[in-house]
Structure formats: structure tokens, C-alpha cells
């Protein structure tokens, strides 16, 4: 995970996205403990409150849970939950605008599918 202090996104959001990515790639398995707030703050040289804020985003989303006195753990079903969330974000961020632009240019759905297939072949 990398924190970019020049990125326009707040650091706590970068922490949350980095943990999400680690869960999706299998670096953190479901029911596995993640690094502590202190470890995040020391590793990335950030305020512990910032790390906590990022982790709390994932707790609120049901991706992480706290075992009192032990630490934070990945929720069972977190991978599926994150994939669904990211698919929706992908649709909203990319597909919707792709379709709008295609309509302006008179590109049919079949032509879009062919273009995407061509992109996968490369």
C-alpha cells in the first residue's frame, strides 16, 4: 500500500482504499487480523487519528470488525461486499460516461462490445 501526499484524496480515504485493495488481492484474508492503528501510523508516518478514520470507514461499511483488546479483523464476506461495491463504482465512473459518449457519436451497443473485446485481446 502506498500513501501519496500529493493525491487530492484525503489520506484516510487512501488508507481505506489500500486496505480494500489488500483484501481484494488476498493480502488480507477474511477473518484475518490487519495491522494495528499504530503500525499504520508508524509505517506511513501519519497521525494515528487519520489511520483510525480510514479504518472506521471500513468498519462502518461492514468490511472490518473489532475484537476488543485484540485488534481489527476482515469480516467474513468482505471480498464479495467489496467486489459488489467496486463494480457499482466502476459502472458509475466508467460505463455510464462511456455509454453517454457512445450515444453522442452514434456508436451502437454491439460496436461498444466489439471495442471492449478488442481491448481485451490486446
Automatic annotation (TrEMBL):
<dbReference type="InterPro" id="IPR036388">
    <property type="entry name" value="WH-like_DNA-bd_sf"/>
</dbReference>
<keyword id="KW-0238">DNA-binding</keyword>
<dbReference type="Pfam" id="PF00392">
    <property type="entry name" value="GntR"/>
</dbReference>
<dbReference type="InterPro" id="IPR036390">
    <property type="entry name" value="WH_DNA-bd_sf"/>
</dbReference>
<feature type="domain" description="HTH gntR-type">
    <location>
        <begin position="9"/>
        <end position="77"/>
    </location>
</feature>
<protein>
    <submittedName>
        <fullName>GntR family transcriptional regulator</fullName>
    </submittedName>
</protein>
<dbReference type="InterPro" id="IPR000524">
    <property type="entry name" value="Tscrpt_reg_HTH_GntR"/>
</dbReference>
<dbReference type="GO" id="GO:0003700">
    <property type="term" value="F:DNA-binding transcription factor activity"/>
</dbReference>
<keyword id="KW-0805">Transcription regulation</keyword>
<dbReference type="GO" id="GO:0003677">
    <property type="term" value="F:DNA binding"/>
</dbReference>
<keyword id="KW-0804">Transcription</keyword>
Amino acid at each position: 500500500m502506498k500513501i501519496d501526499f500529493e493525491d487530492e484524496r484525503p489520506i484516510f480515504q487512501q488508507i481505506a482504499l489500500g486496505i480494500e485493495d489488500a483484501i481484494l488481492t488476498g493480502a488480507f484474508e477474511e477473518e484475518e487480523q490487519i495491522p494495528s492503528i499504530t503500525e499504520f501510523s508508524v509505517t506511513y508516518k501519519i497521525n494515528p487519528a487519520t489511520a483510525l478514520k480510514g479504518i472506521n470507514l471500513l468498519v462502518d461499511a461492514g468490511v472490518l470488525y473489532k475484537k476488543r483488546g485484540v485488534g481489527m479483523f476482515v469480516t467474513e464476506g468482505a471480498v464479495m461486499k467489496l467486489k459488489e461495491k467496486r463494480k457499482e463504482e466502476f459502472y458509475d465512473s466508467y460505463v455510464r460516461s462511456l455509454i453517454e459518449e457512445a450515444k453522442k457519436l452514434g456508436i451502437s451497443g454491439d460496436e461498444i462490445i466489439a471495442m471492449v473485446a478488442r481491448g481485451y485481446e490486446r
